[in-house]
Amino acid sequence: MFNTVSTRDLQRQPKTVMEKANKLNKPLIVITGNKPTGAIIGLELLRTLNVLLSRLHDTAEVLDAKTEKRLQRALKDLQEVKYTVATSDEEIDNHLQSL
Q1: Predicted confidence (pLDDT) per residue in 35-92, tens digit
Q2: Are 28 and 21 in contact (CB under 8 A)?
Q3: Are the beta carbons of 27 and 39 closer than 8 angstroms?
Q4: Distance of alpha carbon 5 from alpha carbon 71, whole angstroms
């Protein structure tokens, strides 16, 4: 279950709410009229999330570059008619075993 804080508490005791967010190192869900309206996170959690997002972004770029290279190679093979058409599971198995 999420830790929550009301907008009223946030308005009246912002320092206490921020200290709680930093101490818990988890998001505090801001509740307005019994509905979630936002979240507050501490600085350490923000740093952690930034590192994770940076790593994910770097990984995505590497995957995209690899995928792009594979696609270019496949297109080149198609243009040079360097492919075979398999019409049965046996032909696919034979081809895979030859690799």
Answers
A1: 999 999 998 999 898 888 888 777 766 667 787 787 778 777 767 777 666 677 787 7
A2: yes
A3: yes
A4: 50
Helix (H, G, I), strand (E, B) or coil at 96: helix
Angstrom distance (rounded) from CA 14 to CA 20: 10
**Chain position carrying tokens 């994770």:** 52
Counting every residue written for the chain, the total comes to 99
Residue with tokens 């946030």: 10
Asked whether the whole model's pTM tops 0.70, one would answer no
Q: How far is CA 70 from the centre of its chain?
A: 23
Comparing C-alpha atoms, which of 88, 74, 1 is closest to residue 36? 1
